[in-house]
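dumping this here before i forget
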Amino acid sequence: MAVLAGAGCHNTPTTPSVTTTSTTTLFASRLLVGGSAWRSFTQTSTSLVTARLSILSPDSEAVVRIGFGTLEGTTCTTTITADAAPNDTDPQLTAPLPPGRYCVQIWDIGNLTKFNDFAIILIQP
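structure:
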């Protein structure tokens, strides 16, 4: 009588990986002393949206305010804001936003000495 012995099969369960893609948008323009600037964007699903001030020049140490808001005609009305400077750590402004049309805004809160070039990175997962 023959006995067959075989090595046991060892299957390690794996956790399925979830791939998320993010959309990164650069909003760059010029900010006047006492001024503001904004850009609209569309949010297609509920998720955390992040805004980061990456450049402010020449007042690179100045604190400005950035915010998310809603559009009312041709006006961006902010509802979520944070004070930020280019050297602040990430994320400077993060908020859960449901689907809809929004705006990201930047404005001088009295710290700029001249017009400044700026760039805001907007990340939508």
